[in-house]
Specification:
It is found in: Chromosome; Cytoplasm; Mitochondrion matrix; Nucleus. By secondary structure, the protein is an all-alpha fold. The chain has helices at residues 2-13, 22-31, 41-44, 46-49, 56-59, 62-67, 71-83, 89-106, 113-127, 131-139, 146-158, 165-172, 182-191, 205-215, 220-235, 242-247, 251-267, 275-287. Bound molecules: magnesium ion.
Length: 295
């Protein structure tokens, strides 16, 4: 965990002018210190000890779903990865939800959209069933299980024949809170499985998903990033137009890292030969003193 957080902070310092929020800049500065004994402490200190519920942890969580075949690992590491910067349950639970969406999508679950959303609701019922979540939800005046409540709204919207952009924004949001953007991204993917009025007929599902996410406005880069990760796991790299890839910063790096993640994924045949690697990760995690509430 320490090495991960340290490299994360160093990466930030090579290019700091990227419009990060001030809160997370303070966290990254502390994470780049070698004296840090608990890498999760800087995030906990944010917002008078409440921690951030923004969507930054969710936005960067997809690689956990690409690395671990096992769902329990996906949830566990998505949570820990997000907690480096987002210690409020409404932040890290959003990251777990996003990682689960990529995980199910990777398994082809979007072929059955209703089952896909029902699976996510069932998982989040468990993820949100704890004291921290209830406490944060109460303080922030949200439903008892905030992400489950939003996923029910997603399911209601996807069952309707016509939905306006205004309705999507008012029902699900398009803001910087994880609660107002992760369910929105999931809806974008589901809504764009079929051709949509107002988008070029030549567009495939992946292009529709990205274009539709951007059309919602608000925190467009993050929502399109999350929707793109879920859709990408479903449609595959071939669905991305070459011209779009050429416009992406860091596309070559992404390609190299994707190969590495793919190798890692295949080292983990459901509790198989790399049990040793996993054990070491768990040891590091426990040494860092992180609470591990994810089943
Ligand atoms: Mg953003």
């Amino acid at each position: 965990s320490f090495s991960c957080s340290y490299r994360f902070a160093k990466e930030y310092s090579t290019s700091p002018g990227r419009g990060y929020g001030n809160g997370v800049i303070q966290v990254l500065k502390k994470l780049s210190s070698f004296q840090l004994s608990d890498v999760y402490q800087p995030a906990r200190d944010q917002f008078n000890g409440r921690g951030s519920f923004g969507n930054g942890g969710a936005m960067r969580t997809a690689p956990f779903a690409l690395t671990f075949p096992d769902r329990a690992d996906v949830k566990r590491f998505a949570r820990l990865g997000a907690m480096l910067t987002h210690s409020c349950s409404l932040g890290y639970n959003g990251a777990i939800l996003q990682a689960l969406a990529v995980h199910f999508s990777l398994q082809g679950a979007l072929d059955l959209p209703l089952q896909f959303i029902n699976n996510l609701i069932a998982e989040m019922e468990e993820v949100e069933d704890n004291k921290e979540t209830r406490n944060d939800a109460r303080i922030l005046k949200e439903a008892e299980k905030p992400f489950c409540e939003r996923l029910h709204r997603v399911r209601d919207l996807m069952n309707r024949s016509k939905v306006s952009i205004e309705e999507v924004i008012s029902e699900l949001g398009n803001g910087i809170a994880a609660l107002h953007s992760v369910p929105t991204a999931i809806f974008c993917v589901l809504h764009c499985l079929q051709p949509l009025e107002g988008l070029p007929e030549s567009y495939g599902g992946l292009e529709r998903t990205i274009a539709y996410s951007l059309a919602l406005g608000g925190d467009t880069d993050t929502i399109a990033c999350m929707a793109g990760a879920i859709a990408g796991a479903h449609y595959g790299i071939e669905a991305f137009p070459q011209s779009w890839i050429r416009c992406c910063e860091g596309a070559e790096d992404a390609d190299v890292n994707a190969e590495r993640l793919h190798k890692l994924y295949h080292q983990f045949p459901q509790g198989g030969r790399s049990e040793k690697v996993k054990q070491q990760w768990y040891r590091e995690e426990n040494q860092s003193g992180a609470k591990t509430g994810v089943k």
